[in-house]
Specification:
Length: 1123
């Protein structure tokens, strides 16, 4: 697998070379990790080839100082930035009257900006699937060398591809232009074990953040967006090449392609699990430290003690320091063999099965249509839009490299085409697939830049979304159940709950949409509707995305409920049994789902249901004469695949979405208000949480310790949960929580079994199952379900577990294979795992990258209290940290709350896509081109005026350019005007000329455009034409304009209204898109966009309240042009 991180300038590179040897012979002698190697076309030009000498200054010069090994500066030096506290202190010192309020405001503003750190390199880390590392570990020197050679060849393939396709820099105003760089400088550092000593072959490739532009040779920073965007293809290419290389070298066989990394056939899953055990090793070491009475006593009272112990263990399991002795390879292999033997594995037998000779035969050419269908399915399972490189990655991940066929509709037998043939085949498939898609690129991309960053969606998704919106706003054949036209529902409902229930029960729409924030009583409303439906003789069916959620819905609402995946699978099987066509909604509804007319189908947490699944439910319901009630919150977590349809229905003005307003969950009134403000994106609500001591910040070690301490303190007094941003955080917290419980004596440390995440479980542990399995019975009629929680009652000798359900007490026995693959500790979980759950107290562990949706879900689980523990400085990579948190916890959460929601439908992406004629598309390129030609014309005019005083500063060129765009007066005319007066005696002639250019009167008529090139003239005319189009549009503006400003008045205020309407359209065309339902609903992402939005909204508010604006209403003037 490929992961990408950043390496900070200065000493950031040092962790790569820790413990390396001076040469490869020492590596094989066990004196350290293998010596690094140089690669990359630019490295070769600098004479950097072969092994890296740790004693040389090359690494320090390149990554530490941004210089060549000869000491030549490579373009701009690494930037140095003041920290946010330093900037705040500077501003505070400049205050005439430094009041506490002013100081607090300044600190808050600077904390929001954060602290910047220059990036010296991108760390591309390549790790093969675990079965490859296992084969490398158990094989002899010939096998191990073959594995390393295949790993190296796969990495080289990716680095070469990135050099060809993703090695770019940006130039021009706001980086509008992409320029290729001549090559990359890459140092490769291979490591052979994980920090726990498990076999884990992996290589760090430090790509220097410098490249020379093709043609002019200037050093520039790389375009990081292109590097990150290339990761999906890089990962897929690495895995595909690795498979091909190992198949050719050792004859191994691979598991069936599923879209994930494939494993080598013959390497047992149990062995892979055994060697993914760093977590277990840490836990074991901690237990050793608390084995004494003193240690056990500390553990009883302090989660902090446990965390410090674990931190120490982590440090002890790191790679050896430069002066330390690494284990000899023979020692490592001997240790691994002993470990396998203790676990019951026979290395020789495994190796014999894995490397057994197989006849490699050709295969019929791939059915390209079927292959494309598979790729579309995979993409729909990811998101609603994909980059070109993302499409290519899906092609590579879902087609075995040895079975690709280049000819469409002309099958032929192919046996492992070489890399060039594979690339050609895949390029054709990608072109074929994107040719069937809709371009939704939402940023201005230089046509000469990396085409892999263009974005796409499918017509299938667009159609599905349109169908759902149509069904939600038009009357259907469906008739509400007989009975009261306006049911009473009783007094158990709030005002908005009763209004929603009435709206659904009297509606003739085929799809109704019910929106409810966290704690608003959605379940209560659903139960009232279900009672009404059943009372009037109709059936009610509940659907949810997980079986646990379906069971909760069934119990709370008193209805039959099923998870969507199971429901679809069962209906498909019944269709096959009866010979019905599952692709026909009517046959599927009748013979598969057995839907009855009048049935109410409640889809709970509908925002988490993928779009195509929602469409399938709606089509079946329509065919059977049923009603669908989609219930959820578009501002909570979205579907794991292509989603956003629920939010699209809610935001469409034609859909009469029903809303629950009152919040019932929280004990404290302030928290009810705070949750609503957070949901709506009001970042200032952070102050309210901080006022009630609900936000905590610090480095990683501190936050892990403090959230664990808080959880421990809650154990004996209330129901509590730890919520995390990532699965890794959940696993680490669960591991630490388990160690605390072992210290208390409530969990046994004997007779343990390793779980899917590498943690261990014993008697007394709380575990979570992660896959539905109806073959494993629980109690009399139940079965094991995804996200069920259980208490371990017994660990059997074969590794199976007897567990007791936390919900009802049913018992089940989980087989060893199921435990290995689908069981994890349940002391902590991600926001996805806890959405829909209610507890007394919730504790969130996150970092500044947390999404608004995850933050909202996590901080609305607890009735009594919800707190956030924010990692403001990560200790995962201390070499990247310069000693100060990048921001404060409050500032991090403020930004997270105001960040645009992540969920996006295909329709919304199409609306956001850049119109090639819009100002958003045209202005950056035009401004860059104009600046270049104004600079050239200014230099020529100054030379003509006899001023040979060097290169004009950007301030002067900018003033001349701004005057041209304002008046149409050419650079030559402006230079003639500002050089008429003498410059004799001027200490700084450039400053004098700049001041004159800024102050010269605009009394002259516009010039001809003969001074500019034909290309720039055409661009200028196009921009001018766009402004004219917007002025015409302002005369009869879209509805969102009048909704914001109000109707145009007949009195004298009409001129101001016209200016505001035009300014609104210019803002939308420059910073958003005219396709949006309301482009002013949220500010743009850029700083310029935020400033423009703030000024425009201020002007509109002043106008609507009857106050004159303090300045001319915000607008962007068009360049004045004469032919």
């Amino acid at each position: 697998m490929l992961s990408i991180g950043k390496i900070g300038a200065g000493a950031g590179h040092e962790y790569l070379s820790k413990g390396v040897t001076k040469d490869s012979m020492e590596y094989y002698g066990g004196k350290g990790e293998r010596c690094g190697r140089w690669t990359g076309a630019e490295a070769e030009k600098l004479g950097l080839v072969g092994e890296i000498n740790p004693d040389s200054d090359a690494v320090e010069a390149l990554y530490g100082r941004g210089e060549t090994p000869e000491g030549v500066q490579m373009g701009a030096r690494w930037a140095t930035y003041k920290t946010w506290t330093e900037r705040a202190d500077d501003r505070i010192r400049g205050l005439a009257e430094p009041t506490a309020e002013k100081i607090a405001t300044i600190r808050k503003e600077e904390a929001m900006r954060g602290s910047r750190r220059p990036c010296a390199a991108y760390d591309l880390t390549f790790s093969p699937p675990k079965s490859v590392s296992a084969l490398w570990a158990i094989g002899d020197s010939v096998v191990a060398s073959a594995v390393e050679a295949a790993h190296d060849a796969a990495i080289t393939s990716v680095i070469d591809w990135i050099e060809r396709e993703a090695a770019w820099t940006r130039t021009g105003r706001n980086g509008v232009n992409h320029e290729r760089v001549e090559g990359l400088i890459v140092s490769r550092w291979q490591h052979r074990t994980s920090r726990s000593g498990d076999p884990q072959l992996h290589t760090h490739c430090a790509v220097l953040n410098k490249g020379r532009i093709e043609g002019d040779g200037k050093w520039r920073a790389l375009d990081g967006q292109a590097i990150y965007a290339s990761s999906a293809v890089g990962n897929a290419r690495y895995l595909a090449t690795l498979e091909t290389e190992l198949t050719d070298r050792l004859g191994v066989e691979w598991s069936v392609p599923t879209g994930a990394a494939r494993e080598i056939v013959g390497i047992p899953a149990e062995l892979r699990s055994l060697w993914s055990k760093r977590a277990a090793d840490i836990a074991s070491a901690v237990r050793d430290e608390v084995g004494s009475p003193e240690g056990r006593g500390r553990a009883l009272h302090s989660g902090r003690t446990y965390h410090r112990m674990m931190q120490g263990v982590r440090l002890r399991t790191r790679a050896p320091k430069p002066n330390g002795r690494a284990p000899h390879p023979d020692e490592l292999r001997a240790g691994w063999e002993e470990e396998m033997a203790r676990a019951g594995f026979d290395g020789d037998r495994i190796l014999g099965r894995t490397l057994a000779p197989r006849a490699h035969v050709g295969a019929d050419g791939v059915d390209v249509d079927q292959a494309i269908s598979r790729v579309f399915d995979a993409l729909h399972g990811q998101s609603s839009t994909w980059s070109t490189w993302g499409v290519e990655a899906a092609v590579r991940m879902h087609l075995p490299a040895a079975l690709l066929d280049a000819e469409r509709n002309h099958p032929k037998r192919v046996l492992r085409p070489d890399q060039a043939e594979q690339d050609e085949i895949i390029a054709r498939l990608v072109d074929d697939i994107t040719g069937q898609m809709v371009n939704v690129t939402n940023t201005v991309i230089d046509p000469q830049g990396p085409t892999g960053m263009h974005r796409w969606t499918s017509n299938r998704l667009l159609t599905a979304e349109a169908d759902l919106v149509e069904a939600a706003h038009t009357d259907a054949v469906f008739v509400p159940p007989a009975g009261d036209v306006v049911p009473e529902f009783g007094g158990q409902l709030s005002v908005s709950q009763r209004a929603a229930a009435l709206g659904v029960s009297t509606s003739t729409r085929q799809v109704d949409v019910l929106v409810g924030p966290a704690g608003s009583g959605k379940t209560t409303t659903m139960r009232a509707l279900a009672d009404h439906w059943r009372t009037n003789g109709a059936r009610v069916l509940g659907l949810a995305t997980s079986q646990v959620a379906a069971d909760q819905l069934a119990e709370a609402a008193g209805i039959d409920a099923e998870n969507t995946a199971r429901w679809f699978a069962t209906a498909n099987r019944k269709c096959r049994t009866y010979g019905a066509d599952p692709a026909d909604p009517a046959q599927w509804a009748t013979w598969g789902a057995h839907l009855e007319p009048g049935t109410l189908i409640i889809v709970d947490e509908a925002a988490m249901v993928p779009t195509l699944d929602l469409q399938r439910i709606q089509q079946a319901a329509a065919a059977a004469g049923c009603k669908v009630l989609a219930v959820g919150d578009p501002l909570q977590l979205d579907a794991p695949g292509a989603g956003g349809a629920f939010g699209l229905m809610v935001s469409d003005d034609r859909v009469n979405a029903l809303h629950l307003e009152e919040i019932h969950r929280f004990q404290h009134a302030w928290e009810r208000e705070a949750s609503t403000r957070m949901r709506e994106g009001d970042g200032t609500v952070v102050d309210l949480y901080a006022e009630h001591q609900r936000i905590h910040g610090g480095n990683e070690a501190e936050m892990y310790t403090q959230v664990l301490d808080a959880w421990i303190a809650d154990q004996d007094r209330c129901e509590t949960v730890m919520v995390t941003q990532t699965n890794d955080q959940a696993s680490a917290l669960a591991r630490a929580a388990r160690e605390h419980l072992i210290g208390r004596g409530t969990v046994s440390a004997h007779h343990q079994v390793v779980l899917r995440d590498g943690n261990e479980a014993g008697t007394g542990d709380l575990v979570r199952t992660r896959r539905n399995d109806r073959e494993i019975t629980a109690g009399q009629r139940g079965f094991v379900r995804n996200r069920d929680t259980w208490t371990v009652r017994r660990v059997h000798r074969d590794g199976s577990l007897t567990v007791k359900s936390q919900n009802g007490g049913a018992k089940a026995r989980l087989p060893r294979a199921y435990v290995d693959a689908h069981v994890e500790l349940a002391y902590a979980g991600t926001a996805h795992a806890v959405q829909g759950r209610t507890v007394d107290v919730a504790h969130l562990l996150c970092d500044p990258n947390v999404s608004r949706e995850a933050l909202y879900v996590a901080l609305t689980r607890g009735r009594a209290a919800n707190s956030a523990w924010v990692i403001t400085d990560s200790t995962d990579h201390p070499e990247w940290v310069d000693g100060e948190p990048a921001t404060t916890a409050e500032a991090a959460l403020h930004l997270a709350i105001e960040r645009a929601p992540e969920a996006q439908s295909a329709t919304q992406a199409l609306r956001d896509a850049v119109d090639p004629y819009s100002l958003r598309a045209a202005l950056p390129a035009w401004q860059h081109h104009l600046h270049h030609e104004v600079h050239t014309s200014t230099v020529g005019a100054l030379t003509g005026a006899g001023l040979n005083i060097g290169e004009p500063p950007s301030a002067l060129v900018g003033a001349i350019r701004e005057r041209y765009t304002r008046t149409g007066i050419s650079p030559q005319t402006t230079v003639e005007q500002i050089t008429q007066a003498s410059l004799d005696g001027a200490n700084d002639p450039w400053a004098v000329l700049t001041a004159r250019a800024q102050q010269v009167a605009d009394t002259l008529p516009a010039d001809s455009n003969e001074w500019m090139s034909a290309d720039l003239n055409a661009q200028t005319l196009s921009v001018q034409g766009r402004y004219a189009h917007l002025r015409r549009l302002a005369a009869d503006p879209p509805e969102w304009v009048t909704n914001r400003i109000g109707p145009r008045p007949d009195h004298a205020g009409g001129d101001t209204w016209d200016q505001l309407a035009n300014a609104s359209l210019v803002y939308a065309d420059t910073h958003s898109t005219l396709r949006q339902p309301d482009p002013l609903a949220a500010h743009a992402a850029s700083d310029a966009g935020r400033r423009a939005h703030a000024q425009l909204m201020g002007d509109i508010n002043q106008y609507r309240t009857g106050h004159a604006t303090a300045h001319q209403p915000a607008q962007t003037t068009a360049p004045v042009i004469t032919r």
